[in-house]
Structure formats: C-alpha cells, structure tokens
Fold this sequence. Notes:
The chain is mainly α. The chain contains 6 helices and 2 strands, in the order H-H-H-E-E-H-H-H. The protein has helices at residues 5-31, 33-40, 45-52, 64-94, 102-129, 138-175, and strands at 55-57, 60-62. A two-stranded antiparallel ribbon has the order 1-2. The longest helix has 38 residues, at 138-175. The protein starts with a helix and ends in a 7-residue tail after the last helix.
Amino acid sequence: MPTNKLQKAIFALLTVFFTVHAYVFYSLYVVNGNTLMSLLGAPTVLDAIRLQGGVYMLGAMRPIWAVVVLEFIFAFSLEMLIGSPCSLKLAFKVFDPSKTHPMLVETAVICATVGIMCPAMSFIADILYYPYYSGFNIFTFLANYIKLVCFNFPFAYFSQLFFIQPLVRTIFKRLFAKKQTA
C-alpha cells in the first residue's frame, strides 16, 4: 500500500474523509436522530438540526460543515501522528508481513487502528460535545466518554473493516497503479 510519506498522507486523507462523514451521519442520524426529531417536532433530522440552529459543539450551535471540518482536522492529525504509526507497529508485532497473507496483515492493521483511533477520537468528541451549559463535572465527562466509546467502537470496527478501508484501498490502488509497459 502506501510506500512514502506523500502516499501515507493521501491514504490517511482518504480514510479520514470517508470516516468523518460516516461518523457525522452516524452520530446525527442513527444515534441522535429520533431524539432530535421528537424533541423539536421535525419531520427529518436535517429539519431538526435547522430548527435548533445547528449542532451543539464547544458550548454553542455550529453548522454541520463546521462540525465536519473540525472533526476532520482532529482525525487527520491524530491518524498521521499516532494512529497509523502505532497500528502498523502493533500489527507487525503479531504478523510478519513477508510470511503472512496480506489480507490478515491488512485486517490486523485495521483492527489496531480502530483500537487506537476510536478511544482517542471519542475523547476528543467528549470534549467537543460536552454539555458545558450545565457546568463541568468529571464524572459526567467520564460517563459520556464511556458511552461514546461503546456507541462508536462497533460502528468503527465494522465500517472500517467492511466498507471504508476496502473503498479507500480500491481508490488508492487506482490512484497509484503502476503503469504497465507492453
């Protein structure tokens, strides 16, 4: 897969692009959609978000695009600095890439990445979406963090393993396919 720093950055960029959009959709529609619609009496989730003036983040309502941009910045930075390097080290401690089928190595890397990124991004999300309007309480913060990890981990694992990473690898292979000489 990626062989140099530029390719690693592009691979991470593609991964984070699809992941952040999937998570914003998952958080707003799947986890909180029915609650938003019923509280605001809106027929759709987007209508509910419009009625409440955006998405609550950092103590104020923000537009969805701001949520996506901020989460993208955090996720990309975290992926480049910690997620990717650490997940490769963890996976290569278990599997030798030269002796193991590539599918097992890729699966190990994906699992290690989810194991690192999900708790880290859930922590960042806990900071971003904490209900600051009611004051700060460390126990509420920790309870929200555990709740986020419990909601996010299954989604992260299955979406990365079966949808996002296969899509990203397909796009990456097409972008960086070696030219065949006849």
